[in-house]
């Protein structure tokens, strides 16, 4: 070790000791420098909860926040989506009947959910006329449990908390108000990211919200993001993704939310089939009632994983596979 | 409510009129008190939900069972669609043909039909490029059918895949695509931009052979076509309808789906094109100045690319399906409702600006033969009753008429210009002397069948298209055209509109009446 290194180590050691000495008085101190403890036998009246589903995101839709978000979305987020996920978007022509310039009808976008990247990918895939006024339904217990997380999600993604365990009156009223104000909603009916890459059951929340507000639901199938940064993954593995937009499901007062949710699930499954085969084959299978399930085969985990790998191979999405290298023969 | 078309009498306070000049524009002042301008109607509103309207049309067809009842699992189903010559400019995605084909395929899937072929009915037109097929049919249909070979383009020169299904009482042989002839059901997806399109013409020209087409695409028929936009007074359409009767009696069952579109041809930066000049706002005037001055300084190659990249915001105004003839009558009524403008009397001089595009040069060069075809073939024929110009009158067109050709799309046009037009401009003479040589040329045949070239005989057809206008007018003047090229066409070149009026005075006197056809929007003048 050279003398210079000794000197550097000595300086670092001195600095560490100085910081520890300076913090020592605080370590022993409690209230008021720390939060008070509650005496036994005392019932503290409930403070109104301002986190979770109660978090007020109104500020995130004001002009300053909107402009900031536009910079975030069109700057680093767009770059990240382009570099990491390279999405291929199809089926936008199915939305043409709903697009009408500035007078575009608010809708509910409902997609399968594999990764935290999904929202960033979909924000860029959704046509501009809806993207300008788009809110994202985000899990209240995950994205809104800390103030910094809530503020970040609201600012960067225009996220609005939704209770994923039950669609409460408060959430329903909030989202209906947003739809009435002309905002469209991006929601994941599964309620969370897929644990293994196959979709979970579609819950009725998205259908319930759309039914109440009389807004069309647009099914979206998103493939490949789970392989790039799925649930439990520690690092990104750049790859390709595919986004397929489906035919809008128009609100029908006579249909129950449960039926609409089932229709949504089958439409997304049909889009998944379309992404892995061709539109005509998927249409034929749909007509025969033999569309492959979105939730994968009911079998052992390794076979599910095997089947998932096969599906991703067909869609050319997910992680890039190394090209076979032929030996040099000379 | 859109305002209907009307005729403006030009006076001293009338502003200069907009003229197309190929890939450029100009403003020309017309003489006061003896000129008039025919303006088309404003674009009609489109259907709110086109997909729903298509589903309704095929479920409640005219003079036919619903499509679902015509489908069964063991059948041969063939879907034909109009090629890239419609619409002009190309419409924004999704193209209405995609919506029709997807709706039909959805019904076919529900009925368990497996044997489906999709054929581009392009007649003797060039084969469509992959991106054009995707634009017209959408990625879903192309990805589903192209790789398996079930989506392809009609080949009018493939003897193994053509078959004769009968002969008309006039001796016209009806020879069409074998797969179409042998199908249990043929569904035709049509776009009707003008009254000439649709009806039996869709199939009888779209999937026919050269032999079949030559019965009506000839100088005799086209000189007696009064006009192309009025099928009841068109020799061309009479021949086609006779062939349609043979097809109806001896051919496959046909389920025709026809759509009409409005006249909203250009997106918002070009709003001034379809506005009446005295209603131009400051923004329109600024747009015009910026656009025209920029185009004046832009190389033609680049301005052509800009114009051909325009995607028109057309809206679908009607969908009808069922028996071809009943459907087409409905379609015609809808087209005329949008296009017809009543005009009182004929005129000595007809002026028209020729745009950058005609049905035969999408994504390509508007060569001199196509300038003639567009002016004397299409725009002159935009009438019902009598032509806008009197017999022996003068037609003045504005176009640069550069001697430029697209060698990939129009190879036979180059030789036609250099060889045939150098010899004769008379359609009858060239038909006898030259047509067969070009029609049977092996190299042109090879380019048509394997590349993206129009058939070798196509420049003759383009020339015949203008036969009626050429015979009707005593002089045709092209303002701003390349003099040598214009003379090769048999027309008179002029530098300015004033010069053109001066040249016309030899024929129509010094105070002729003038009528200007205001384009780009389509209109049909109902001349009383």
Notable traits:
heterodimer, A: 330 residues, alpha/beta, 7-stranded mixed sheet, 7 strands, B: alpha/beta, 2-enoyl-CoA Hydratase, Chain A, domain 1, Rossmann fold, 2 domains, 38% helix, globular
Provide a compact summary of the structure.
The complex is a heterodimer of chains A (330) and B (528). Chain A has helices spanning 3-27, 63-84, 117-125, 128-131, 140-143, 147-157, 169-180, 205-213, 225-229, 257-276, 279-288, 301-315; strands at 87-90, 108-111, 134-139, 159-162, 184-187, 217-223, 241-245.
CATH C-level label of the largest domain in chain B: Alpha Beta
Number of helix segments of chain A?
A: 12
- What about the largest sheet of chain B? 9 strands, mixed
Q: How can the largest sheet of chain A be summarized?
A: 7 strands, mixed
Question: What does it look like?
Answer:
The complex is a heterodimer of chains A (330) and B (528). With 330 residues, chain A is of the alpha/beta class. Chain A is 44% helix and 10% strand. Chain A has a single domain, classed as Glycerol-3-phosphate (1)-acyltransferase (3-Layer(aba) Sandwich), CATH 3.40.1130. Chain A has a 7-stranded mixed β-sheet, with helices on both faces. The radius of gyration of chain A is 25 Å and the shape is globular. Chain A starts with a helix and ends in a 15-residue tail after the last helix. By secondary structure, chain B is an alpha/beta fold. Chain B contains 22 helices and 20 strands. In chain B, strands 1, 2, 3, 4, 14, 16, 17, 18 and 19 form a 9-stranded mixed β-sheet that branches. Chain B has a 6-stranded mixed β-sheet with strand order 7-6-5-10-11-12, with helices on both faces. In chain B, strand 2 and strand 3 form a beta hairpin. In chain B, helix 14 packs across helix 19. Chain B is globular and about 70 Å long. The model of chain B has no long low-confidence stretch (mean pLDDT 95). Chains A and B meet through helix 11 of A and helix 1, helix 3 and helix 4 of B.
């Amino acid at each position: 070790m050279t003398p210079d290194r000794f000197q550097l180590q000595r300086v670092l050691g001195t600095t560490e000791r100085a910081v520890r000495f300076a913090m020592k008085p605080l370590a022993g101190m409690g209230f008021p420098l720390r939060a008070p403890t509650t005496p036994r036998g005392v019932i503290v009246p409930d403070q109104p909860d301002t986190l979770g589903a109660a978090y007020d995101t109104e500020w995130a839709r004001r002009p300053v926040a909107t402009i900031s978000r536009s910079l975030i979305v069109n700057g680093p987020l767009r770059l990240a989506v382009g570099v990491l996920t390279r999405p291929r978007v199809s089926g936008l022509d199915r939305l043409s009947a709903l697009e009408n310039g500035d007078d575009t009808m608010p809708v509910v976008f409902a997609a399968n959910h594999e990764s935290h990247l999904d929202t960033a990918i979909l924000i860029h895939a959704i046509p501009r006329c809806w993207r300008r006024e788009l809110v994202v339904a985000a899990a209240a217990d995950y994205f809104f449990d800390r103030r910094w997380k809530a503020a970040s999600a609201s600012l960067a993604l225009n996220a609005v908390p939704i209770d994923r365990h039950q669609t409460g009156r408060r959430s329903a009223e909030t989202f209906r108000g947003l739809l009435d104000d002309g905002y469209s909603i991006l929601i994941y009916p599964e309620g969370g990211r897929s644990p293994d890459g196959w979709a979970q059951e579609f819950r009725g929340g998205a259908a319930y919200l759309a039914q109440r507000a009389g807004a069309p639901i647009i099914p979206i199938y998103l493939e490949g993001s789970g392989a790039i940064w799925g649930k439990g993954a520690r690092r990104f593995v750049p790859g390709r993704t595919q986004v397929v937009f489906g035919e809008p499901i128009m609100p029908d007062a006579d249909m129950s939310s449960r039926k609409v949710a089932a229709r949504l699930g089958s439409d997304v499954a049909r889009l998944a089939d379309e992404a892995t085969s061709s539109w005509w084959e998927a249409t034929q299978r749909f007509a025969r009632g033999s569309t492959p399930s979105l939730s994968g085969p009911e079998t052992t985990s390794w076979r599910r994983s095997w089947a998932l790998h096969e599906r991703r191979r067909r869609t050319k999405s997910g992680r890039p596979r190394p090209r076979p290298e032929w030996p040099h023969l000379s | 409510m859109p305002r209907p078309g009307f005729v403006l009498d030009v006076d001293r306070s009338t502003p200069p009129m907009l003229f197309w000049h190929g890939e450029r524009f100009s403003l020309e002042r017309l003489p006061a008190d003896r000129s008039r301008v025919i303006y088309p109607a404003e674009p009609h509103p489109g259907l709110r939900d086109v997909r729903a309207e298509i589903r309704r049309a095929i479920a409640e067809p005219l003079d036919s069972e619903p499509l679902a009842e015509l489908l069964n699992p063991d059948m041969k189903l063939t879907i034909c669609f109009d090629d890239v010559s419609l619409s002009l400019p190309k419409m924004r995605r999704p193209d209405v043909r995609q919506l029709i084909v997807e709706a039909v395929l959805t019904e076919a899937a529900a009925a368990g039909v497996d044997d489906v072929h999709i054929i581009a009915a392009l007649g003797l037109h060039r084969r469509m490029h992959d991106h054009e097929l995707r634009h017209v049919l959408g990625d879903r249909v192309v990805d589903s059918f192209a790789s398996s070979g079930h989506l392809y383009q009609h080949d009018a020169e493939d003897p193994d895949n053509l078959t004769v299904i009968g002969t008309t009482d006039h001796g016209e042989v009806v020879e069409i695509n074998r797969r179409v002839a042998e199908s249990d059901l043929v569904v035709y997806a049509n776009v009707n931009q003008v009254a000439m399109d649709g009806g039996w013409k869709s199939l009888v020209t779209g999937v026919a052979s050269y032999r079949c087409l030559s019965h009506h695409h000839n100088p005799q028929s086209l000189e007696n076509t009064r006009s192309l936009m009025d099928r009841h007074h068109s020799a061309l359409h009479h021949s086609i309808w006779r062939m349609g009767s043979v097809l109806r009696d001896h051919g496959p069952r046909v389920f025709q789906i026809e759509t009409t579109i409005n006249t909203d041809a250009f997106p918002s930066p070009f709003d001034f094109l379809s506005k009446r000049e005295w209603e131009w706002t400051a923004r329109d005037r600024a747009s015009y100045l910026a656009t025209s001055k920029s185009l004046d300084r832009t190389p033609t190659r680049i301005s052509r690319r800009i114009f051909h990249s325009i995607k028109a915001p057309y809206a679908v105004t009607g969908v009808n399906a069922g028996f071809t003839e009943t459907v087409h009558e409905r379609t015609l009524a809808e087209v005329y409702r949008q296009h017809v403008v009543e005009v009182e009397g004929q005129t000595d001089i007809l002026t028209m600006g020729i745009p950058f595009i005609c049905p035969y040069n999408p994504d390509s060069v508007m060569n001199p033969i196509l300038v003639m075809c567009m002016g004397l073939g299409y725009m002159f024929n935009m009438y019902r009753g009598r032509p806008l110009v009197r017999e022996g009158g003068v037609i003045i067109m504005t176009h640069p008429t550069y001697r430029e050709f697209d060698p990939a799309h129009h190879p036979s046009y180059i030789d036609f210009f250099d060889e045939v037009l150098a010899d004769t401009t008379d359609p009858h003479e060239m038909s006898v002397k030259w047509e067969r040589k070009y029609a049977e040329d092996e190299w042109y045949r090879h380019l048509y069948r394997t590349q993206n070239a129009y058939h070798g005989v196509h420049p003759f057809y383009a020339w015949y298209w203008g036969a009626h206008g050429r015979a009707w007018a005593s002089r045709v003047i092209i303002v701003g055209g390349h003099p040598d090229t214009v003379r090769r066409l048999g027309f008179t070149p002029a530098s300015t509109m004033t010069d053109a009026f001066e040249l016309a005075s030899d024929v129509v006197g010094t105070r002729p009446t003038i009528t200007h056809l205001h384009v780009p929007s389509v209109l049909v003048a109902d001349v009383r």
